[in-house]
Specification:
Shape: globular
Strand order of the largest sheet: 1-6-7-8-9-10-11
Number of domains: 1
Strand content: over 45%
Distance between the termini: 42 Å
Structural class: alpha+beta
């Protein structure tokens, strides 16, 4: 009985973890890349794929299906070949699946992590994208605007050794543009 109760308590955490993707972690039980996604990646990353001497798209990328709202399926795609990444960041894509067609609805050129949040806007789950190194980092929230995901919140920071803090700038979407709303020096 105690084990069953523990399992019931952990199920929400297990389910929540399935909608988080890190640049450095392999996707558990990846899905097959749809042909329309393979076509998009081949067309848009042709030079990088040649440079990395990748023989097949299955060797280069991994994907996982996710629910972005009650009616829509999407697929998160990220490199599994580090040649396509930077030192700490990798590109990631989110494609909405409509039958056999996959439409790109979100993209990050370089990110350390991607998470689909439980909060929704315009019927779609929000995206949290983030990354950090020893000296700087960022976090962004992306919100569905009816056609695509748009960055609505951003916080960037850089370590300031002289002040012994993280020099932080916060931005929010106002009148269609990200505007700085605060600057602070956060002590660790």
């Amino acid at each position: 009985m105690k084990r069953l109760l523990l399992l019931l308590l952990l199920l929400p955490l297990i389910a929540e973890a399935s909608d988080e993707f890190g640049a450095e972690e392999a996707i558990k039980n990846p899905d097959k890349l749809p042909s329309s996604v393979i076509s998009y990646l081949s067309k848009n990353l042709d030079e990088e794929i040649k440079y990395c001497e990748i023989k097949s798209m299955d060797d280069a990328f991994e994907a996982k299906s996710v629910k972005i709202n009650a009616d829509s399926q999407a697929i998160v795609v990220k490199p599994k070949n580090w040649c396509l990444c930077g030192a700490y960041y990798c590109p990631m894509w989110l494609f909405q699946i409509n039958g056999s067609t996959a439409n790109r609805i979100w993209f990050a050129e370089g990110t350390g992590g991607f998470e689909l949040l439980d909060q929704e806007a315009n019927g779609y789950r929000q995206i949290k994208e983030s990354g950090a190194t020893a000296g700087h980092g960022h976090e962004s929230i992306w919100t569905w605007d009816g056609e695509k995901y748009r960055e609505t919140y951003s916080q960037v920071w850089v370590m300031d050794g002289e002040k012994n803090c993280r020099e932080t700038e916060t931005y929010r979407l106002k009148n269609g543009k990200l505007k700085k709303v605060s600057t602070s020096c956060l002590k660790d």
